[in-house]
Amino acid sequence: MSVPTEGESIQIHSYKHDGNIHRVWQETMVLKGTKNIVIGANERTLVTESDGRTWITREPSICYFHAEHWFNIICMLREDGVYYYCNISSPFIYDNQSLKYIDYDLDVKVFPDMSYAILDEDEFQEHKRQMNYPDVLEAILYRNIEKLISWVKQRKGPFAQDFIDVWTSRYAFHKQLKMNEE
């Protein structure tokens, strides 16, 4: 299996359970790439929705993907603090310069004070019926929400301040390198 290279620009592809594309982020810079973990960063990147609509991300973000966890974490760096948008999803695969995962609707939004909210449970139930999610999948997803919330409470992984400091510094380094090359 290939892995993305540090400094490389990749796309992120989000799919739905039925195999249809959900959303594509045009450009994310890889800050760390192994077979189990990809950490990337982007800002002002073009995002294309499944219906063709496009938008551009507003703030710099550090993205955390793991090949063994059923979630990914987007750390949005805003002036009033770090906001986290956590997608409950399949573990990622890396294929053809693209990181790919299945989005399972459920999300956990974490605020700078580490309070959180579980979002889109109604959308999950609707898609579970439409796409026939197996019961075992629902159990896996809710177990991973519990794991994610325990990470938040413990300030573990992307929720640790040093994670943000290390990877924003690394991103600044790579942005400077890229600018010097141009």
Automatic annotation (TrEMBL):
InterPro entries: DUF402, FomD-like_sf, Ntdp-like, SA1684. It is an enzyme of class 3 (hydrolase). Residues 18-156 form the DUF402 domain. Its EC number is 3.6.1.15, 3.6.1.6. Mg(2+) 2 binds at residues 105, 107, 120, 123. One of its GO terms (molecular function) is magnesium ion binding. It catalyses: a ribonucleoside 5'-triphosphate + H2O = a ribonucleoside 5'-diphosphate + phosphate + H(+); a ribonucleoside 5'-diphosphate + H2O = a ribonucleoside 5'-phosphate + phosphate + H(+). Mg(2+) 1 binds at residues 87, 103, 107. Keywords: Hydrolase, Magnesium, Metal-binding. Its cofactor is Mg(2+). The active site is at 23 (proton donor). Has nucleoside phosphatase activity towards nucleoside triphosphates and nucleoside diphosphates. Belongs to the Ntdp family. This is Nucleoside triphosphate/diphosphate phosphatase. The lineage of its organism: Bacteria, Bacillati, Bacillota, Bacilli, Bacillales.
